Amino acid sequence: MPSAAPETASPAALNTLSVGTGGPRIAFLHGLFGQGRNWTQIAKAVSGPHGADARCLLVDLPDHGRSPWSTEFSFAAYADAVAATLRAHGPGEAWTVVGHSLGGKVAMVVALLHPELVERLVVVDIAPRDYVSLERFEGYIGEMQRLPLGELTSRGDAEARFEEPDAGVKAFLLQNLRREGHTWRWQVNLDLIAADAARGAESRIAGWPEEADALPPYDGPVLWVAGGDSRYIKREDGERMRAHFPRTRLFTIKGAGHWVHTDAPDIIVTALRRFLAS
């Protein structure tokens, strides 16, 4: 399998992980509390056994992973940071941009703000609309805030103290925990996310930027992937999706939840390969 090597284009650039050495350029954007490396399995499969089928860039969004933090959340700022990072890694080249959940919204805004940079777009289990609040994530935020970082003795100790009963969700959230010497910290900008969640129905992360509605539609091909067991995409979302992205094709994966690429990685890989070849 092709190796994955960390890269940074400049001190202020978003942190990235590269997979593959040839072929079209593909950028992968993760969801809230995620990291670029969450897409590693998919990227390795898409790039092929020798890494020559695609050049994949796994991006840590601002406030996530090893990327810089911001003082205020903004979809436009996130999109501009992603666009600058893609230009730094592939000057003059167009990309297929794949985004899940929060990353899917960012990917859509990248395509609307920087259409010349995006050859194709893949949006995974999210729609261009306001989801009202981060209510679903408030429990996770509370669990993370309650973890006594100053008392932890090991990662095993953190796992034992962390209250989340779902083992998969626990592992996903605790990937954000980092040890520095004898101290522990959250790598994700938890304070910013918690402050946004506290805004309730005014959450910017859960929302959709009004300025995006004023931009011309993106006329490139769009693959819109939905988890069959997820509630993030509704029938009525199709109208808004097609208004922004007229060349949208919806693909629903039966039995998959919101984390579609985790629940059905082989199907996602096949869908991406076909989309790239079409």
Automatic annotation (TrEMBL):
Q: What species is given as this protein's source?
A: Humibacillus xanthopallidus
Q: Which GO terms describe its molecular function?
A: hydrolase activity
Q: Which UniProt keywords apply?
A: Hydrolase
Tell me the protein's name: Pimeloyl-ACP methyl ester carboxylesterase
Task: Please list the coiled coil stretches.
Answer: none
Gene3D superfamilies listed in its UniProt record: alpha/beta hydrolase
Q: Pfam families of this UniProt entry? A: Abhydrolase_1 (PF00561)
Q: Which residues form the AB hydrolase-1 domain?
A: 25-264
